[in-house]
Amino acid sequence: MFKGTNASAGIGIGKAAVIKEVEMVIRPDKVASVEAEVQRFRGALADTVAQTTVLRDDLATKVGEKEAEIMNGHLMLLADPMLTSGIEDAIKKDSVCSEYAIETTCTTYADMFAAMDDELMQQRATDMRDIKTRMQQTLQGIKPVDIASLPEGSIIVAKDLTPSMTAGINPANVTGIVTELGGKTSHSAILARALEIPAVVAVSGVLDKVQDGDSMVVDGSEGVVIVNPTGEETAEYSARREAFLKEKKDLERFIGQPTVTKDGVHIELVANIGNPDDVAKVLQYDGEGVGLFRTEFLFMDRTSMPTEEEQFEAYKKVAVGLAGKPVIIRTLDIGGDKEIPYMGLAKDENPFLGYRAIRLCLDRKEDIYRPQLRALLRASAFGGIKIMIPMVTCLDEIREAKALIEEIKAELDRQGIAYNKDIQVGIMVETAAASLMADVFAKEVDFFSIGTNDLTQYTMSVDRGNEKISYLYSTFNPAVLRSIRHVISCAREAGIMVGMCGEAASDPMMIPLLLAFGLNEFSMSASAILRSRKMITGYSSQELQAVADKAMSFTTAKEVEAYMKEFISQ
Questions:
Q1: CA distance 525 to 503
Q2: What's the half-sphere exposure (Cβ side, CA atoms, 13 Å) at 495?
């Protein structure tokens, strides 16, 4: 039995299909004609773009436009003039072959992305290595691994799955995915979840123990992989698989049902999204709105700032798609940890404590913040848009942002442009300062949304990406729980809505505590909505008070987690 990271829920039983790519030898071979080599590179580039376009279109048909955005990211990288001219310059300068120029140029970019303290940019490193390999394979006449033609009942076992390889999977034939590398937020894991294929990643040493055709069990819910299971183990996991599929089917009866506790407390169950195409998933899973729309996608993978009009169209699309349901849109949360050349941001030594989010936006009102706020206000005429300010640490930031919004409202009035005059403005509570000042901030804003990922990180002074200290990163730590309870209490006292858009909002062990604390709104990935609705409607918030009191009496995260795990199991 192997243990890894549970990347996509469900249980797969089948035969191993071990994927090993042909190893390429890349040498700095000199070329006789630099111009001919540049043309050779351009031909390979054009072929790679054509292949990627086919993958994107197939993915859009198989899964949806949202998932196809991953391959759109590849197309944007392939069209980036900085990258392509860098490769051509390397060919011309050193008279080297295209393969080597691609290797050095793409690796430089990939290493730069990988070194950043941001998961999204770290994924760009994977994307860059993926397109590098595919361009080199095209140049050397090597056909990529044909995952699309795997037989029915295959379990893919690989060192890692690139996004382009995952995009080629036929979900009717693949019942599981196991990789030695990767994480929950890797693009291959995101695609596995979208394709609803059980996946376990970061399974150390599994390739050494698996042969093509071996029987396998993949438990993507628990992160367990079994090679050549016994008859007893196969029977056990077959039963678990049937139970999982039955539960999934059973959750469909919660579509159209109100999210109300047994004692009549109505809860708003909404979704986190990253772009307008995600609205389809929100509606599919009967989300009651959007609790966090991350606007960063509009600013990434491009060579210039998005215009006010581009932003307006994106925000309007979400508002119209949700037909009046609440849509909380977070203003730009970006900083020196993200490589966006056109923004001219200096690299921050400590980006998570640096020049980012509201700090950056208020400093660059004219070219960044004003166009975004104008676009948000204009789009508010088409639906239930609310504006949320991230990374707030002091009252001055809130007041300055609100003053700018009022200034833009007056401007729109003079121009005769429609907007929601009563638009709500709230903040993300994700810093220790915001938590400590929650009673004061609650009197200045219309709502709170607790970002538990960062709140946990800042409260515990722990980098959640650092494996050596990951044991400290727990939302169940009493310090974090006290902070959450305090924030909710302050919001309720001030009579404003308080939600949560961090990972904890859909954690089955956390939901009872949040209900007892008085959280109004739970925001999560769309696929978690029905399971959370089932849980919430089965509880009485009053009865949960005793559970919360007991949990808050413990002094360590382990004790709280053990107690909540036992409570949930009962």
A1: 9
A2: 1
486 is catalytic: no
Nearest CA among 271, 370, 395 for reference residue 329: 271
Q: How confident is the model at residue 337 (pLDDT cuts 50, 70, 90)?
A: low
Please state whether the predicted TM-score (pTM) of the whole model is above 0.90.
no
Structural tokens at position 140:
């050397």
Residue 220 near residue 11 (C-beta atoms within 8 A): yes
The pLDDT, as a whole number, for residue 464 is: 64
> Over the chain, what is the mean pLDDT?
91
- Give the pLDDT score at 65: 65
Q: How many residues does this entry show for the chain?
A: 570
Do 191 and 130 meet the contact criterion of CB atoms below 8 Å apart?
no
Domains of the chain, CATH where assigned: 2-19+146-251 (3.50.30.10), 34-140 (1.10.274.10), 256-471+496-540 (3.20.20.60)
Residues 6 or more apart whose CB falls under 8 angstroms from that of 272 comprise 290, 291, 292, 293, 294, 501, 523, 524, 525
Strands (E), 285-358: 290-294, 326-330
- Say whether 533 sits in a helix, a strand or coil: helix
* pLDDT above 90: residue 398: yes
Catalytic residue among 97, 106, 490, 501: 501
Joined tokens for residue 468: 């050596």
Give which of 538, 486, 478 is closest to 511, Cα–Cα: 538
* CA angle at 94 for the pair 92 and 98, rounded to the nearest 5°: 65
- Active-site annotation holder among 74, 187, 361, 490: 187
Query: What percent helix, strand, coil does the chain show, rounded to 5?
Result: 55, 15, 30
- Reference 475, options 485, 467, 465, 466; nearest CA is 485
In sequence order, the 6+-apart residues with CB closer than 8 A to the CB of 254 are: 286, 530, 533, 534, 537
Q: What is the rounded CA–CA span in Å between residue 395 and residue 440?
A: 8
- Could you give the C-alpha distances from 296 to 335, 408, 537, in angstroms and in order? 11, 22, 34
Reply yes or no on whether 501 is catalytic: yes
